[in-house]
Amino acid sequence: xxxxxxxxxxxxxxxxxxxxxxxxxxxxxxxxxxxxxxxxxxxxxxxxxxxxxxxxxxxxxxxxxxxxxxxxxxxxxxxxxxxxxxxxxxxxxxxxxxxxxxxxxxxxxxxxxxxxxxxxxxxxxxxxxxxxxxxxxxxxxxxxxxxxxxxxxxxxxxxxxxxxxxxxxxxxxxxxxxxxxxxxxxxxxxxxxxxxxxxxxxxxxxxxxxxxxxxxxxxxxxxxxxxxxxxxxxxxxxxxxxxxxxxxxxxxxxxxxxxxxxxxxxxxxxxxxxxxxxxxxxxxxxxxxxxxxxxxxxxxxxxxxxxxxxxxxxxxxxxxxxxxxxxxxxxxxxxxxxxxxxxxxxxxxxxxxxxxxxxxxxxxxxxxxxxxxxxxxxxxxxxxxxxxxxxxxxxx
Length: 396
Known about the structure:
Blueprint: H1 2-15, H2 17-54, E1 60-64, H3 75-82, E2 87-102, E3 105-114, E4 125-129, H4 134-138, E5 143-147, H5 148-155, E6 164-169, E7 172-183, H6 187-192, E8 199-204, H7 205-212, E9 219-224, H8 230-244, E10 251-255, H9 256-299, H10 301-309, H11 314-351, H12 359-385, H13 389-394
Parallel strand pairs: 3-8, 5-7
Antiparallel strand pairs: 1-9, 1-10, 2-3, 2-6, 2-9, 4-7, 5-8, 6-7
């Protein structure tokens, strides 16, 4: 019986192919909107999370609280944190906004002073040349690593190892040799907000300290061993550094992991809110289904009367029209899902992003679409089921 209703439903929908197609498209638009917004939100959240982790926002940052003390982080503080139990690594943070000059062209740059290690502050993928050696740090060598995007900007190619750039420090341009080209953790953020986040250049932190004449660190980034609580360790590190400086308060340890988690939760809320707005189009599509089905009932009034006079029950008529509404909803959902996923895949290919899907959201959008079709199709189906055969047969 169910297969018969399905067959009749398909036949009746095909009879009005143009109207059926428009209704399916309206449903597909709603589902596509939800899929696109949900997937974009998920991909954006994952990429931003990866970028923030690569830029150090997955660790603990220890720094001086300028409101409480004039003291600064020193080499002794770095040694203390590196040797502290349960600390995996501690690296100094020395940064400065500056200007770089190559081939007669000038660009703003964020200059990072880093160590020779593959540190946890910034994820650097070596593309050409080499990274820093111990001798570069101990000798305060005039060398640098250049972000691959900056190399493309100045030379229209990545491999610029051996070239020189001039770095503006205290009003003077100082020459540096490019010993390596790297792909840095900020690349996606640079693509999205290139006018805000400048070009990245990396120096041995000792060299940058020597150029600026400041032996201190703005911050020290600490990564913890796997399984350890960053919140508890942050409190202990804060107390240890304050004791070393013989202070009750003055230095603070910020748990950047918690800040990153808070940002992730905010992004999830924004994604859900936008998806809910997009889901309004599903309600509009449901109204379209109801309109089409009401018109279909009016057009087939005499047919309904004949079926009832031949023994069709109210349940059979109800199921037939309800099946048509569900078929419209399912067809629109599948088309919308395919269109949405296709759009997401194309976008990921264009922007070189890894495709990520929020599977629960996709399933919910399809379920809501089908339930919407059933809900809005119920009223026309009830109209058809409750018709009296005599009244229906009078209709011309």
